[in-house]
């Protein structure tokens, strides 16, 4: 396409390339995932510290097949909380691997809370639900772009 800038001169301009757009709702999903993962990581760290500081804080159940020492649970929760917090803040990089790490960490957190359910049933159920929301929001982030580029159904 040529444009006239002055008599005798033409300026060639390239047609505007259509860039894939991410909907604000999808971007909000990543921000949501970062915030919720930060809350989940903080929860894990606080639960871990509570179990490390006071062995009698959580009531142990008899005949629970996955029963571990409360202090061991505490250290496990504390370390997983730190990993979850780190994964949450890597999501700000916008990289695909960061979303994969976020989904993996959220899945492992849900599994960890499944085994921790007899010690804190309500909180474990809430954290599992939040982990599922994080996985969903991170998985749906690239969907509008994939539809536009590859013609995949929405």
From TrEMBL:
Alphabetized InterPro entries for the sequence: DUF7144
Domain of life (superkingdom): Bacteria
Transmembrane segments annotated in the record for this chain: 25-53, 73-92, 122-141
Domain DUF7144 positions: 30-143
Keywords associated with the record: Membrane, Transmembrane, Transmembrane helix
Protein name (record): DUF7144 domain-containing protein
């Amino acid at each position: 396409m040529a444009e006239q800038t002055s008599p005798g001169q033409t300026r060639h301009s390239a047609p505007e390339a259509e860039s894939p757009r991410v909907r604000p709702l999808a971007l909000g999903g990543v921000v949501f995932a970062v915030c919720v993962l930060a809350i989940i990581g903080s929860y894990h760290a606080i639960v871990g510290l509570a179990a490390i500081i006071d062995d009698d804080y959580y009531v142990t159940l008899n005949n629970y097949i996955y029963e571990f020492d409360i202090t061991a649970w505490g250290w496990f929760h504390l370390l997983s909380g730190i990993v979850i917090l780190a994964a949450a803040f890597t999501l700000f990089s916008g990289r695909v691997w960061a979303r994969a790490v976020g989904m993996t960490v959220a899945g492992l957190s849900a599994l960890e809370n499944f085994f921790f359910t007899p010690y804190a049933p309500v909180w474990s159920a809430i954290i599992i639900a939040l982990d599922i929301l994080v996985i969903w929001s991170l998985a749906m982030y690239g969907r509008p772009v994939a539809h536009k580029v590859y013609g995949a159904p929405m």
